[in-house]
């Protein structure tokens, strides 16, 4: 039996390098008026490409990928520790080659794509020469993909796609879209949809508008309409009817990464509220001297450490079992817990900073909105809680307790007396012969 909360020295050196590199060179990029995904912007490339080269020289580029794709093939624990650092800077995912949704899209093309699809789309995507979008959610679809209505119908040696997709992240920058559409409406619910690679310049692809999350100056969540969009038959990704299973492949590890990036953001918030608490003076001292502030600091620290350990334990279980299905309950649990921890710590940070905290001179309101986004993205919190409950209750399916179950106190007392009656009889016999 072995329990170890230490990181091997060689990898810790990598993490230490990442901490300094992200803080000193990557974080400042987020304060400039450029977007990480705008790969056609010369200024962006002039700033980002040299940093990507430094990451590659350290052997830390796209570490979620196997060596055959230019990565390190790291397990989820190592990736989690890296994402804790990456989460604090908006440009860090791009600089380290692990930006969503490109990572998930690359993963499914690597697993399910044809050699031609890999050459045309995967290779430039891995090199960050292009970016992509995952066009799945629909305006009326909500959290249930079995309610999607976008259709793809065979038309000779092409597929013809019609429908609308909502919140296709980074659609405005994308060179290609991965689109989920209904191909077999009469099949079982989870076998009705297929996935397609759709170049964004295909006739009939219309970006209706780019929606911004509240507080963003420029939106990048695309509302896309597909009108008689024809793509060649060889642009089917994976098997016909396999879209639901493919989508699950890309989400498991991504949820762990989101959670650890949230840990990084929360750690930053705790650091800033602590600095404010010991620096902001009042008539009698600093606000850190007040118990009300101390309670907020303590709650934030406790919740953050609990959440971090839970996420790393889940990552460890994934590495151990190498099967996301065996860790489904815990993946859903960290996804459900993440927005609450993030929201509560961000709210306390705002409160401790007072009027400055709610102003546009601090980023904390954006953290608060980001926490709410985390409660919706990759499935809403309620869906994940249902998953946790269902997975947990599977271990109780054979239980059929009576009205007065065996764990009621009268029944437990009766069982205890029956267990110890022979002992009492021996003790009475020994006392009688003494």
Automatic annotation (TrEMBL):
List UniProt keywords, sorted A-Z: FAD, Flavoprotein, Oxidoreductase
Q: Which InterPro entries match?
A: Acyl-CoA_dehydrogenase (IPR050741), Acyl-CoA_Oxase/DH_mid-dom (IPR006091), Acyl-CoA_Oxase/DH_mid-dom_sf (IPR046373), AcylCo_DH-like_C (IPR036250), AcylCo_DH/oxidase_C (IPR009075), AcylCoA_DH/ox_N (IPR013786), AcylCoA_DH/ox_N_sf (IPR037069), AcylCoA_DH/oxidase_NM_dom_sf (IPR009100)
* Residues covered by the Acyl-CoA dehydrogenase/oxidase C-terminal domain: 244-391
**The protein's required cofactors:** FAD
**Acyl-CoA oxidase/dehydrogenase middle domain span:** 133-229
Q: Which residues form the Acyl-CoA dehydrogenase/oxidase N-terminal domain?
A: 13-129
Classify the source by domain of life.
Bacteria
Family according to the record: Belongs to the acyl-CoA dehydrogenase family.
Complex and partners: Homodimer.
**The name this protein goes by in its record:** Acyl-CoA dehydrogenase family protein
Q: Which organism is it from?
A: Pelagerythrobacter marensis
């Amino acid at each position: 039996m072995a329990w170890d909360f230490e990181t091997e020295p060689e990898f810790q050196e990598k993490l230490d390098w990442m901490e300094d590199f992200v803080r000193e060179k990557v974080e400042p990029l987020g304060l400039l008026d450029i977007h990480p995904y705008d790969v056609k912007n010369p200024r962006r490339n002039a700033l980002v490409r040299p940093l990507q080269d430094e990451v590659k020289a350290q052997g830390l580029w796209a570490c979620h990928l196997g060596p055959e794709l230019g990565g390190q093939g790291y397990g989820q624990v190592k990736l989690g520790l890296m994402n804790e650092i990456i989460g604090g800077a908006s440009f860090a995912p791009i600089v380290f080659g692990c930006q969503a949704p490109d990572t998930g899209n690359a993963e499914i093309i690597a697993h399910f794509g044809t050699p031609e699809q890999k050459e045309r789309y995967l290779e430039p995507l891995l090199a960050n020469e292009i970016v992509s979008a995952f066009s799945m959610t629909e305006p009326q679809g909500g959290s249930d993909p079995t309610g999607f209505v976008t259709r793809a119908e065979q038309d000779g040696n092409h597929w013809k796609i019609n429908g609308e997709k909502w919140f296709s992240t980074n659609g405005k920058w994308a060179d290609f879209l991965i689109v989920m559409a209904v191909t077999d409406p009469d099949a079982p619910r989870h076998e009705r949809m297929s996935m397609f690679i759709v170049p964004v310049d295909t006739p009939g692809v219309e970006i209706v508008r780019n929606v911004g999350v509240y507080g963003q100056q420029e939106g990048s969540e695309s509302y896309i309409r597909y009108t008689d969009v024809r793509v060649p038959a060889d642009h089917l990704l994976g098997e016909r009817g396999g879209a639901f299973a493919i989508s699950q492949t890309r989400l498991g590890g991504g949820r762990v990464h989101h959670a650890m990036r949230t840990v990084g953001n929360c750690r930053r918030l705790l650091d800033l509220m602590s600095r404010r608490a010991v620096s902001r003076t009042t008539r009698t001292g600093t606000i850190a001297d007040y118990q009300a502030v101390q309670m907020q600091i303590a709650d934030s620290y406790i919740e953050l450490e609990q959440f971090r350990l839970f996420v790393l334990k889940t990552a460890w279980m994934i590495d151990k079992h190498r099967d996301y299905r065996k860790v489904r309950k815990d993946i859903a649990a960290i996804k459900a817990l993440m927005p609450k921890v993030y929201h509560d710590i961000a709210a306390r940070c705002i409160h401790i900073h007072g009027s400055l905290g709610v102003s546009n001179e601090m980023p904390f309101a954006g953290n608060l909105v980001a926490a709410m986004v985390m409660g919706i993205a990759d499935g809403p919190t309620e869906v994940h809680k249902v998953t946790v409950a269902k997975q947990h209750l599977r271990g109780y399916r054979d239980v059929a307790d009576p009205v007065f179950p065996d764990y009621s106190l009268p029944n437990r007392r009766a069982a205890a007396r029956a267990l110890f009656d022979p002992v009492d009889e021996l003790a009475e016999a020994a006392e009688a012969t003494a």
